[in-house]
Amino acid sequence: NYMIGKSFYEKEDYGNSFKYLEAAFKEDPKNTEIPTLFARALVDMSNFKAAVRYYSAALELDQHNSRLLNEMAMAYSAMNDDKSAIVYFEKAIEKGYKIDDDFIENISNSYVAAGMPEKGTELMKSLLEKRPGDIAILNNLADNYYKAGNYKEAITYWDKVLYLDKEDARALYMIGMSYLKTGDKNNGQTLCNKA
After folding, report:
1. Per-10-residue mean pLDDT for the chain, 195 residues long?
2. Rounded distance, CA 178 to CA 156, Å?
3. Contacts 24+ apart (CB under 8 A), 164-169
4. Measured between alpha carbons, how far is 17 from 65 in angstroms, rounded to an integer?
5. What SS3 state is found at 133?
6. pLDDT (0 to 100) of residue 148
7. FRET label pair with 62: which of 40, 79, 152, 191, CA 20 to 30 Å apart?
8. Which one, of 129, 111, 147, lies nearest residue 103 by Cα?
9. What is the phi/psi pair of residue 163, to 5°?
10. What's the pLDDT score for residue 61?
11. pLDDT of residue 144
């Protein structure tokens, strides 16, 4: 049942996969891979709340699995429950998860969304040092500063985006919005209209 369920999972036939995986779980309730496959399939179907339940079941069987902890964090992040995401991102680090650029970007965005912009911004800046021309990181930093009400810094980073891509209408528009927020209505409106 497990092998058949896994085969259907790999073919993205989740309906049949679930049927066989449920039978497999009755046969082997200690197999961590079964609830993990359920969780991943549910993530593929954007059913993050149900995925969290299955990740929880998998983590009950293997509490030290840093990969599962990271996947749980990503599911919480997708649900916009960034405080819970941070808990699992930090547990993943604690259990030895390999920290790469994507991980830094994900945890940084969660810190900002959870109301800890300083922590998120510092991580994002460290990432920018490694990838100085990365437009996504520049936009993230600008967005972080904008959300924190630091419009001058937001403008600085969106200016860098425009330097790399002179036709980035969103960056131009957000610079205009930043000027509007600082009270410079003429400059702000002109840039928004130009965007």
Report:
1. 97 97 96 97 97 97 96 97 97 96 92 90 92 92 90 96 95 96 95 94
2. 10
3. 164/133, 164/135, 164/138, 165/135, 168/135, 169/195
4. 23
5. coil
6. 85
7. 79
8. 111
9. -65, -40
10. 96
11. 87
